[in-house]
Amino acid sequence: MKAGIVSYGAYVPKYRIRPEEIGRVWGEDGATRGKGLGIMSKSIPSPDEDVITIAVEAARSALLRAGIDPQDIGAIYTGSESHPYAVKPTSSVVAEAILAAPDMTAADYEFACKAGTAALQNVLGLVNTGWIKYGMAIGADTSQGAPGDPLEYSASAGGAAFIAGTERIIAKINGMYSYTTDTPDFWRREGQAYPSHGGRFTGEPAYFKHVLTAARRMMELEGTEAKDYDYVVLHQPNGKFPRRAAAKLGFTDEQLAPGLLTPRIGNTYSGAVPLGLSAVLDIAKPGDRILVTSFGSGAGSDAFDISVTDEMERFNRSAGPLVEDMINVPEEYYVDYATYVKFRGKIRRKGD
Amino acid sequence: MRDVYVIGAGTTRFGELWERSFRDIGIEAGIKAINDSGITGNDIDALYIGNMSAGAFINQEHVGALIADYVGLAGSLHIPATRVEAAGASGALAFKEAYLSISSGMYDIVVVGGAEKMTDIGDEMANYITSMAIDQEWETVFGATYASLQAMMARAHMERYGTTREQLGMVSVINHRHGALNPDAQFQREIKLETVLKSGYVAEPLRVFDMAPLSDGAAALVLASGDVARKYTDRPVKVKAIGQASDTISLHDRREICTMDSTVYAAKRAYDMAGMGPEDIDVAEVYDSSTIAEIMAIEDLGFFPKGEGGKAVEDEKIALGGEIPINTSGGLKARGHPVGATGVAQIVEIVKQLRGDADRRQVKDAKIGLAHAVGGSGATAVVSILEAEI
Amino acid sequence: MNMPRFWREKQGRYNLVGNRCTNCGTYYFPKRDICPKCHRKSIGKMEEVRFKGTGKVVSWTIVHDAHPDYKDMRPYIMAIIELEEGPRLTGQIVDCSLDEIHTGMRVRDTFRKLSEDGKDGVIFYGYKFRPVKE
User: In chain B, which end has fewer C-beta atoms inside a 10 angstrom radius, N or C?
Assistant: First the structure.
């Protein structure tokens, strides 16, 4: 494939809440809940942040790092399940806010938690055909959990942007594989404020079946084994599932840990794999090989086999914030549950 | 240019006037001024009304004709009525337009009114409407409020000149002390410095007691040409000069944040026109929409050197009995601040002082008075100088 | 705020696009058709510029009483910021502790929601600023 990743940028909102605080309000043992999920804290968007602002911040960081003229971006696709509008796109705002419009194409994706990797496949394809010079794929979410629902412990916010191109590639795509089925373990009906889920059904038949199948098939296609990779990035709805999946695939904690962010920022849904991959690219060296597998409920899994190139040596990472630096925040950004529900708009107000 | 005199003055009481409408207060002030002057309705050539935002406050525009109608001068006499708007300087500019209409020779007797009815809506909305005087596209849309701009001026003044939080508070204390002597004032009680310093924050470092209140009220004046004035009164007050100046609509675009250049230029123009300087002024009403605004005003009008306004306040040089008594009416802070009425009410107070009618707050031997009004955060300033001719 | 009024200024609000008088070299934000220094000599000579977005705090306040549209952010920091290229503007400072804000603080722009036209209305986006680590 001619097309590869030429730049990336990430964004994680600064506010946090701990499971202990959520449990305190709902009469649950939050600490134990958090431990069970492998989540110590999760990110919360400020009242002035949403998928559009997260996408723009990530997109700007990606542009700055590669020094790309935004007018050369021929396509922008933003994948999310929490686009701020039901009708009125996200990607055109992003395009305007990075000065990429108007000579370009754009669309929004909604494909459960793998909308971001689906967007990446698409821009790679468009670049590969030569139809566009650069394409931008963004995965971002400000995911919602109903008050009192177990999802409240994990649903968080963040996102990352990738620019695909053919020159000065920092991460080469060795191969892609997707595994698609209708396995409804998680959904939200039109007009509903909060998602529903199939409880334990989300484990074996959904997450594990798809992630393991896609990752294994990717390795079969490339003729590789777990030990051939330096890093593995898996979809991470909690801290436990990706650990178990990685172990089943034969990966070690060392390969998984750099791209496993959920324990510290929660589940960023469409942003999860893009952010995990960004965290790995933040530290990766030329020659490093990365296996990536996303997962979306009722959607399936996308797997990518990626190699970091020599170009990474010249890549200006410091032009944008590193994921690790955005994950670590001072104690004052940890808020209580009341502040959290105000920030997330869960309080019914006058006129609502 | 003909000489112009003030021959009548009147105001309503300022405050939360629940039972009175915009029309009621406009008429009351007008009738008081007309009665004070001794003219009759038939003598009036024209009406000028200063009003900032009746459209937003009470959903009523076209208030020039409205007041002319309810004063009984529209349906029968069909006098020309003009509304003038320049935010907080609306009343002062209505006064200027009336002045020009007489000095030009077009009219002989003109009534100037100023009115605002601000309390029919909630405080949040009323504060938002007053912020319409600052830049809607590049200030308020980003979250700036009127008070927040005053607060940034205060911060700059404190950091640059060492002005203290206590000095700011003393502006409010002195204005309340004066207001206690004014039976038309919204707040007629003295306050302690502690009260200001312990009041809640509006925009740091400014607190509730640093800010002028939301008020209802109206004020009116009768102006006449020199030859006509003596027919009605033996103690006319001469309009010596009016100076006006503008500056950028946004505070951030100004040459300086803690000097109001519009005031500096308006004052210079007024002093030049009057052939006077700040040292000639015996009493002044200045635009204290906030405590910092008063400190900047007394500096920018030349009463005190730049940066020494805070010290002058601390030393009570601006209090009754001080070097130059400022805001003997109580100022915007204690008399009240019905925005469109303020500029006219300031002239009413100066007229009372120059005639010796200011009762318990009379400045002894006051011969020359100055009124200073500001629109927005300083994009408009008007300075008027009046002289007793008794 | 309403949609057309906001929409027509989006270049300035999204991307800090202003201009520069090629006659005297002064930068302006927002865009001006006429340079206040050069007057008619500047007509037709104003050139569009995108500002870098970095600058320093000239003055600031912590707003407690705010319009309902901005209530969720209270208390929030408003500041006058001088951009590196020269012009000044007014904006909020976010992701900044109330103890940390000071005159002279270095900041850079960030893309945020400014307000919305009610729950069922258009969302207005634009610049705010955040501290730059020194």
Answer: N
Residue B236: how many other CB atoms lie within 10 Å: 26
Please tell me the CATH superfamily of domain B4-122+215-237, with its number.
Thiolase/Chalcone synthase (3.40.47.10)
Cα atoms found within 13 Å of the Cα of residue A276, Cβ hemisphere only: 34
Q: Are B196 and B173 in contact (CB under 8 A)?
A: yes
Indicate which residue of A21, A49, A57, A81 is catalytic: A81
Average pLDDT for B308-322: 98
Measure in Å the smallest separation between the Cα of C49 and chain B Cα atoms. 17
Q: How many CB atoms lie within 10 A of CB C38?
A: 17
Domains along chain C with CATH numbers: 52-131 (2.40.50)
**pTM attached to this predicted model:** 0.96
Q: How confident is the model at residue C5 (pLDDT cuts 50, 70, 90)?
A: very high
| Dihedral sign from CA coordinates of A343, A346, A348, A352 | positive
ipTM summary value = 0.97
Cβ within 8 Å of residue B181, ≥6 positions away: B320, B328, B330, B359, B360, B361
User: What span, in angstroms and rounded, lies between the C-alpha atoms of C132 and A162?
Assistant: 24
What are A5-62's pLDDT values in tens digits? Answer: 999 999 999 999 999 999 999 999 999 999 999 999 999 999 999 999 999 999 999 9
Domain boundaries, chain B: 4-122+215-237, 130-213+239-388
Please check whether residue A113 is in contact with residue A294, taking contact to mean a CB–CB distance below 8 angstroms.
Answer: yes
**In contact, B344 and B219? CB cutoff 8 Å:** yes
CB contact under 8 A, A330 and C15: no
Mutate to test the interface with C, among A16, A48, A54, A78 (most CBs of C within 10 A): A48
Say whether residue C3 is in contact with chain B using an 8 A CB cutoff: no
CA–CA distance, B207 with A75 (Å, rounded to integer): 51
**b/e code A141-178 from CB counts within 10 Å (16+ = b):** bbbbbebeebbbbbbbbbbbbbbbbeeebbbbbbebbb
Pick the CATH number of B130-213+239-388 from 3.10.450.50, 3.40.50.300, 3.30.428.10, 3.40.47.10: 3.40.47.10
Same fold, B4-122+215-237 and B130-213+239-388: yes
Residues 44..73 of C with a Cβ closer than 8 Å to B: which?
A: 58-68, 70, 73
State the pairing for strand pair A196-197/A15-17. unpaired
> Which residues on C lie below 8 Å from B56 (Cβ)?
none
CA distance A305 to A14: 31
